[in-house]
Specification:
Length: about 210
């Protein structure tokens, strides 16, 4: 009818399928803070995620045991549904994974969450994910000394069709900040590159996780 070619039809069909998937997280709205809902939407479509974690395992890499222990420790009112949301985020990204780059402060490995056995399973899970072609997991050792991210964790997220990070996500006790100014993004991207260069190699990090 519109005399269009098959390539355009295929692209429109793909976009229609993807649009029907957007907003899947709304079923978790009662446990999803407004300030976090926007991030989950961007995360679902992300081309690349780069995260520095200083205190705890990133949510996308947590085992269910670890998640439950974290939520209990923070007094979360609906820990089961919040844990279900994290598992749903992990499943969706596993189906269509972005490039995932994570630098873990060594403190994350030594902070027991959920008990010794559960923590051991969490560390083995990190090592397993680190073997995936789309994931790079590194540990920043204590003996690396001072570094540019000592003020806290942050996440750089790149949306599709963008050559560089689109924004910086900073979560805090009462909400989150989305930094979009070029200077802010560049500062955090430079800091992340420094961390990745200073941290142990992926292979050495995996050995430390399994030690």
């Amino acid at each position: 009818l519109y005399e269009t070619d098959s390539a355009l039809v295929a692209e429109l069909m793909r976009e229609a399928a993807e649009s029907s998937e957007r907003g899947w997280w709304l079923s978790y709205a009662d446990t999803l803070p407004d300030w976090f809902e926007m991030y989950v939407g961007f995360e679902s479509d992300a081309r690349e995620i780069a995260e520095y974690a200083s205190e705890s395992v990133p949510e996308l890499l947590q085992t269910r045991e670890y998640t439950h222990a974290m939520l209990a420790g923070r007094g979360h009112e609906d820990g089961i549904k919040a844990a279900d949301l994290r598992q749903a985020r992990q499943r969706r990204l596993a189906d269509r994974p972005p490039r995932l780059r994570v630098v873990l402060n060594e403190a994350v490995l030594h902070r027991p969450v959920g008990g010794t056995a559960a923590m051991g399973r969490q560390l083995r899970h990190l090592a397993d994910v680190g073997r995936e072609s789309w994931a790079v997991i590194q540990v920043l050792p204590f003996d690396a000394g001072p570094h540019p991210a000592m003020r806290g964790p942050f996440t750089l997220l790149t949306v599709p069709d963008e050559p560089a990070p689109s924004f910086v996500y900073l979560e805090h006790l009462s909400g989150a900040d989305y930094l979009e100014r070029p200077a802010e993004i560049t500062a955090h991207a430079t800091a992340f590159d420094h961390l990745a260069t200073t941290a142990l190699s992926p292979d050495a990090s995996r050995k430390l996780l399994l030690a």
